[in-house]
Design a protein that fits this description.
This protein is an all-beta fold. The protein has one helix at 207-212, and strands spanning 3-4, 16-17, 33-35, 60-62, 75-81, 90-94, 100-104, 114-115, 128-130, 139-141, 161-167, 170-174, 180-184, 188-191, 268-270. Helix content is 2%, strand content 22%. It has a domain at 19-200: Nucleic acid-binding proteins (OB fold (Dihydrolipoamide Acetyltransferase, E2P), Beta Barrel). It contains one helix and 15 strands; from the N terminus they run ββββββββββββββαβ.
Length: 274
């Protein structure tokens, strides 16, 4: 459950924090961090490509291994850590050759636990294997779309996909969005749900906390002048005044399909309902 605090000030009322009781280490592993420069939503030309970004606390980027390729022996979980760059927690592993590595922590992962990658007689929480070697009905995360490319799907806090069936060289995977997709059996996945399952219950509660996260204010289009937004203009509280809501550049804003990747449409058996 999210952690509540006693509201000594109006800004703290209804504010909640994540459940960090399972975390064991406050500072990251120095050898697995690199500086992270803030671009404030700007592209390589210096133009804003993502609005409402800027400021915030400085961060170090943790080098998380999303591939976690097969190896001989077992790795030990030595620490569970917070990562400011993602909603999930990360786990620090000690590999058989005594090197260290970060992976996404699964929900039930514990300190001292053994983790494997590749073919294993017993599938444990957080271990990684080919989808062909994982039984039907098991929850998985950090899914590959192409063999050897590394996990690209189901990586945010509390998420988990389900292997529903296997046919030929493909497995049918039910994603958290309810989309059912065909993925090659040779692709790898990690066992269990992603950690920090209560992340979606956290309440920011005040504007200053969003600024610390690097999120700048968002102004409603209705509050602008007509020259600045299609929704702008009017006096007082007024409706949008259009048949459909639009973006500042005139494109549809609600219910508009933006998927253009026809090349992989054949792998989607059922579109998402969420």
């Amino acid at each position: 459950m999210p952690r509540l605090i006693k509201p000594n000030t109006p800004g703290q009322r209804k504010k909640s924090f994540g459940d960090f009781e399972t975390l064991t280490k406050k500072r990251p592993e120095k050898s697995l961090t690199v500086p992270l420069r803030s671009h404030a939503g700007r592209d390589k030309f210096g133009r804003i490509s993502i609005r409402h970004r800027g400021g915030g606390e400085k961060r170090l980027y943790r080098l998380v291994d999303f591939k976690f390729l097969p190896f001989d022996g077992v790795a030990k979980v030595t620490a569970l850590e917070y990562d400011p760059n993602r909603s999930a927690f990360i786990a620090l592993l000690e590999m058989p050759d005594l090197s260290k590595k970060y992976i996404l922590a699964s929900d039930k992962m514990k300190i001292g636990q053994s983790v494997t990658s590749g073919v294993s007689k017993r599938i444990t929480e957080g271990s990684r294997a080919k989808i062909a070697d994982i039984p039907v009905g098991v929850k998985v995360h950090n899914l590959e779309l192409q063999p050897g490319r590394g996990g690209q799907m189901v990586r945010s806090a509390g998420m988990g996909a389900t292997i529903t069936a296997k046919e030929g060289k493909y497995a049918y995977i039910r994603l958290p969005s309810t989309e059912v997709r065909k993925i090659l059996l040779e692709c790898m996945a990690s066992i269990g749900l992603v950690s920090n399952v209560t992340h979606n219950r956290i309440r920011i509660a005040k504007a200053g906390r969003s600024r610390h996260m690097g999120i700048r204010p968002t102004v409603r289009g209705k509050a602008m002048n007509p020259v600045s937004h299609p929704h702008g203009g009017g006096e007082g509280v007024n409706p949008v005044g259009l048949k459909h809501p639009k973006t500042p550049w005139g494109k549809p804003a609600l219910g508009y399909r933006t998927r253009r990747n026809k090349r992989t449409t054949k792998f989607i058996l059922q579109r998402r309902s969420k």
